[in-house]
Amino acid sequence: MRLDDTIAAIATPLQPSGLGVIRVSGTQAVEFVEPLFKGTGRSLKKVETHKLLYGWIHDEGELLDKVLIVVMRAPHSYTTEDVVEIQCHGSPLVLRAILDLVLKQGARLAEAGEFTQRAFLHGRLDLTQVEAVADLIHATSEVGAKLAAQQLHGKLFQAIDAVKKQVVSIASLIEASIEFPEEGLEFTQREDCLQRLDRARADLEDLLSNAEQGRRIREGFAVALIGRPNVGKSSLLNTLLREQRAIVTTIPGTTRDSIEESVQIKGVAFRLTDTAGIRKTEDLIETEGIRRTKIVRDKADLVLLILDASEKLAEEDLELIRDVEEERTIVVLNKKDRTGANLPEWYEIISKMESVLISAKSGDGCDDLESCLFAKATQGGLPQQDEIWITNRRQQQAAKHGLVALQKAREILENSDGEEFLAVDLRSCLNALGEIVGETTPDDLLGQIFSEFCIGK
Ligand SMILES: Nc1nc2c(ncn2[C@@H]2O[C@H](COP(=O)(O)OP(=O)(O)OP(=O)(O)O)[C@@H](O)[C@H]2O)c(=O)[nH]1
Ligand SMILES: [Mg+2]
């Protein structure tokens, strides 16, 4: 991708809104916007950096919109290049017209994530911060957004950098001893190296210990709503979403395909999936639906097993009860309104499992169910203030590789065996850590990360 030209894009959504922003970045940013702007003050080329200017954007004299313009001169901008941002009214037509004028002046339409990519390539953001930008934009929960903000602030970069520095210090001790092999590693040096290795290992293990939970917080906990037909799965989905999202009818087998929607409970995101009711059927579409249900159930972080408390247990219910894994399941006893708020007579069968009596129809008991979901999801911990967690698989995988390399290095050092290979393991650890922050990340992976950004970011 080129770095030497000037790029432009609309940075806000194309929907009627109060404000819209067009962003221009590159050495000719000011030059391209200057002829389009009529302000009260001096020419854009001479104005102070970071100062808001009021005026009009015009197309050869014809007024397009009243705007505020800010020039941010290199290197004090998001991309570290000269940046001009035009704040106009959030009209999709006006935004497109202004962007077209900037492009006509010679700017190139930016690709998805290209502003952020420039910030990364110019060293203003490391790769964890780049990912944090995307995470913050797409965050679906308060806790997820807070973790992304910590990462954007550079906390994960600092944590990884600290481990890297320790590994570098060990590597230089070892490399010195390789240069003078007749001297070898002295006892005190070996002890020193071992201590440093253990500290680096502990720090990395610490970071990794919350990674799975961090990923669930970022993505939202996957919750599968399962049960036999007609127990009220779709009704429950709608009640938890506070929206009539799924079709509900009295006919068993209403839901054929899985439906996924996100909901936030006490600041944590849950991805609820309503599924086709499980039963024996000859119907081809329903059979496929049931096959999908089982996949959703097996992949879910948490399962809501829904039973109709107003009826006797059916063979399908018993089969489902037998199949569930207790630690990730909450049994939902639905249709409380029909039982006079009494537990069903068969309650004994599920009494050892966590259960909540609710009415999906009236919403009665759904607060308790939400609390139960929240408690179960956060058993694995919640980030404390200022705490930094790894939140994506890419970072997690690389950190694991780093840890394995450190463990190998430790074994070699401990057994005083094959010290010539120590440097190899330490370098492979540094390589893995470098991948997390973007120093040694392969180009295709970088390309993939930026392609997932929106245009204008
Ligand atoms: N009285 C009462 N009826 C309910 C309750 N929840 C659901 N129902 C009714 O039960 C019937 C089935 O509800 P659904 O939500 O479609 O059930 P489902 O489990 O999604 O069914 P399938 O999609 O066929 O698997 C509908 O008539 C609902 O109105 C409840 O809490 N109380
Ligand atoms: Mg349904």
Overall mean pLDDT stands at 93
- The CATH class of the largest domain turns out to be Alpha Beta
SSE class = alpha/beta
User: How much helix, percentage-wise, in residues?
Assistant: 40-55%
Beta fraction of the residues? 15-25%
Per DSSP, the total helix count is 15
Oligomer: single chain
Rounded to an integer, what's the Rg over CA atoms? Answer: 29 Å
With strands numbered from the N-terminus, the spatial order across the biggest sheet is 3-4-5-6-2-1-7
Overall geometric form: flat
List the secondary-structure elements in sequence, H or E: EEHEEEEHEHHHHHHEHEEHEHEEHHHH
* Assigned CATH architecture of the largest domain: 3-Layer(aba) Sandwich
Give a list of the ligands.
guanosine-5'-triphosphate, magnesium ion
| CATH H-level homologous superfamily name of the largest domain | P-loop containing nucleotide triphosphate hydrolases
